[in-house]
Amino acid sequence: MKNPFVMGCGEFHVNYKQDMAIWKISRVRVRVMIMVALLAIFPLIASDYIVGLATLCGIAAIGAIGLNILTGFTGQISIGVGAFLGVGGYTSAILTAKLGLSFWIAMPTAGIITAVVGGLFGLPSLRLKGLYLAIATLAAQVIILFVISRWDTLTGGTAGMVLSRPEIGSFVFNSETSYYYLMFVILVITTIFTLNLFRSRVGRAFIAVRDRDIAAEVMGIDLFKYKVLAFIVSSFFVGVAGALLGHYTMVVSPELYSITVSIEYLAIILVGGLGSVFGSIYGAVFITLLPVFLRTGVELLSGVFPDLSNVLNGMKEVVFGLVIILFLIYEPEGLAKIWKNIKDYFKLWPFSY
Amino acid sequence: MGILEINDVTLRFGGVVALDKVSYEVKKGEIFSLIGPNGAGKTSMLNCISGLYKPSSGSVCFNGEEITHFKPHKRAALGIARAFQNIELFPHLSVLDNLMLGRHVRMKTGILSGGLYWGKAQKEEVLHRQKVEEVIDFLEIEHIRDTPVGRLAYGLQKRVEVGRALALEPEILLLDEPMAGMNSEEKEDMARYIIDIHEEMETTIILIEHDMGVVMDLSDHIAVLDFGKLIGYGTPYEIQNNQKVIDAYLGVENVG
After folding, report:
1. Which of A178, A255, B117, B134 is the most buried (most CB within 10 A)?
2. Cβ B122–A229 below 8 Å, yes or no?
């Protein structure tokens, strides 16, 4: 019988296909399967409130994976994510509410339109790097929001638009659980697509552009093409996330896509781990749930110290900021790295040398 | 006709003339060395060949085709590969991925087939992995293939850098001081690899190196640059007896 207290050692792959798999060891594959299965059955047991939170986490994760493709993997800082989410949400709103198209056409189209807009604002990336590019994408944020809030006839201006939940035949995704599954399927597809991307040619080129752009160019990578491509792929997923979010909250309006949202997404990939697909998911869960936990904590404390409730409310923001600063100082590679460290520790446990 | 022809290449940065009407040709299948004192313009010359600098005037021809205005990535596709003087590897990628990236121009997978992976992209990855493994065997870096390059020792990084250029299956290989900062044993190894690359893969090699022993032993032809001017061209024997080169760079051994 296999001894349950020792880890198997040695990975024997007999062909390159096995060696290039995403999850190389059967034990890991089983663990991933169990995780996916748990996530798939959990809305059946959990309350609507929790499933709703999970849906928000998942949608944020899709957008964060998109942003991570651009910022984490290709090294192009973008602070226009909020606006790109808006482009996705508004495209889907206009297509479904004004043109009467179905959600199943509107959502991919929202992705494509956002990709085109993202590609356009990615054009300066050939000449601009780092902070300068960040400012250029900030322009995207401002311009897009300006257009959205002023183009009254198309977008409804500052009043926003109302969306409906998607439907298949006579089934409408009205319940929290059904929308969770919709989000879950898209999140799984996004994750697998991105994982595949970064073990094949284009993904490697993205990382090369991030690490050493000059060497990348001499090795045959067209910098301009790949930088714009990164903007396009990234914006596609952000657009899809925007459409999903719009149909979930059933409302789009300019103030939902402000620069605060952009910064929140940057915080997600920083806390989760730059250049890590799963990090984006961990980060999305963390940043989405942190305010919820803080609020619950403040409510509990306010019960004990009613006089302090105002102070405690203010402290919420402070704690939020503090957490991000602590991450930057103690684990710049984020939650993904922390999780990896834990796994590495137990790989050699109990003799860690 | 040579595989690479440099005609009257001049490179100016404002008032500084980095290269001044340099002309020479590299014959197919030879080891060609560029030597000269520091700041003579050797690396600038290499940058003109690989496309990072555009010559102010003059032309660069590869296999009879003028490539002076080609972008660097297009030149890579033609088969010009380069290893840099200061290591320019991708530190977060493993040795294997660095080498796979070297094959970028030989592969075709696009963004969609890459993301879907199973099928076309996987087949291509496996096919090119075989080529990369050949390079890994050749350079004897099997034991580090999964290590991120940033964690490797300097000498090994230099070898991986040569490997990445080799993975491209280049027609012409530009090596910018592949032995800088190495001890004599590592230098010997590297020299042996260069000879093997030259003999087994029949690759044309352009070498910049300061170790005269290595240069004189390996090269078929040598060009000498000084302050951007070509002051000597010929076989190692001719160069050793060229008075201008001796004055500018080689020097004389003072006896007594």
Report:
1. B117
2. no
Return the CATH architecture of domain A40-348: Orthogonal Bundle (1.10)
Contact B111 A205 (CB under 8 A): no
* A196 with B115: Cβ contact below 8 A: yes
Interface predicted TM-score of the whole assembly (ipTM), two decimals: 0.90
B105 contacts chain A (CB < 8 A): yes
In chain A, domain spans: 40-348
Predicted local distance difference test score (pLDDT) of residue B256: 56
**CATH number of this structure's domain B1-79+170-256, picked from the four choices 2.40.10.10, 3.40.50.970, 3.40.50.300, 3.40.640.10:** 3.40.50.300
pLDDT tens for residues B80-99? 999 998 889 999 899 999 99
Better-predicted residue by pLDDT, B107 or A311: B107
Distance CA B33, CA B241 (A): 16
Which phi and psi (to 5°) does residue B6 adopt? Answer: -110, 120
Chain segment A106-116, per-residue pLDDT in tens: 999 999 999 99
A16 and chain B: CB distance < 8 Å anywhere?
yes
Encoded amino acid at A172, one letter: V
